[in-house]
Amino acid sequence: MKAAVIGAGSWGTVLAQILADNGREVALWARNPEKAARIRETRCNADYLPDFRLSPSIQVTADLQEALEGAEVLVFVVPSKGMGTIARQAARFTDCRSQVILSCTKGFDLSTHKLMTDILEETFPHARAIAALSGPNLAREIAQKQPAATVIACRNMKEARFLQQCFLTPYFRPYTSPDLIGVELCGCVKNCIALVGGMLSGMGFGENAQAGLITRGLAELTRLGMKLGAHRATFFGLAGVGDLIATCTSPLSRNRSAGYALARGKTLEEITGGTRMVIEGINATPVVRELARTHQVEMPIIEQLYQVLFQGKDVKRAIEDLMKRTLKKE
Ligand SMILES: NC(=O)C1=CN([C@@H]2O[C@H](COP(=O)(O)OP(=O)(O)OC[C@H]3O[C@@H](n4cnc5c(N)ncnc54)[C@H](O)[C@@H]3O)[C@@H](O)[C@H]2O)C=CC1
Ligand SMILES: O=C(CO)COP(=O)(O)O
Known about the structure:
The active site is at residue 190. By secondary structure, the chain is an alpha/beta fold. Helix content is 53%, strand content 13%. The protein has 16 helices and 8 strands. It starts with a strand and ends in a 7-residue tail after the last helix.
């Protein structure tokens, strides 16, 4: 079985290696031909993972048609803002009738605010199955083959189990779930909460503040998810609380680091301009806020985050405002 990994950032590169370690034939597609050639020759994606070597068996190409040729599993892992465009490009070469499509991206479509699997479902209406992978999966740790677990969600559980087998390695343990919406929503919203985690840390606050944020962030995420038809249990699993803990507390998280820098006085433009890496929580925040308003879900942390990111509110004041809210029972 061949898998095509579409997107050669940190996570795509590591996912390609996981599939290769599982014994699959793998093609890794990079948008930029020079970058693809460099990775192919050096077996190293120096921009993102300088200390990590890719197996010689992984085919690295900037030719999408070549990457997709003969692939049974298509793994989309481009930043959310590029998903629609790249998926439509891929659809020129295959209708995916006999293929399973997996999104490993954590974010919403910028223009429609839809989830990634909704975009993929629209682009590939005849696909064998559409699935999402999400969990506490910091790419750099997994690149070192440190143990990690994840969730693969698909409405068709037979296909979820098929993907579970494809990604299983001694260091990477996938669980299955039928809750596609819940698993994807967790991946989107935890990035926003992690921005706040970074802000708390940047303000010099300790573990009590962090634990309070993770717990109340989980409450907000769960409330929204329940309104959108997700399963409650998903939020208390790897994709929910698991990824909240990893992303809010790890200095490897780009979202957390961005929040930290904001609290230390950097502007959003300085932060995004200073990295080639994607910080998904920034674009996700207005979408989550809008979803909360549409579905009348109280999400005070998201509201304060929005005001800091897009209305120039001071981080210190935002935290004070959260602490002063009307008292209530847990
Ligand atoms: N890095 C990680 O630890 C994890 C990342 N993810 C998710 O995976 C997705 C991809 O993230 P990373 O691999 O970390 O990205 P990255 O920040 O390491 O690299 C981004 C890659 O996407 C390419 N790119 C940028 N804009 C693009 C566009 N419009 N169309 C196509 N390609 C574009 C860049 O050239 C680069 O190769 C994100 O949604 C992220 O949240 C999920 C789990 C773990
Ligand atoms: O999703 C991730 C870990 O599960 C990666 O988080 P960042 O995008 O914040 O680095």
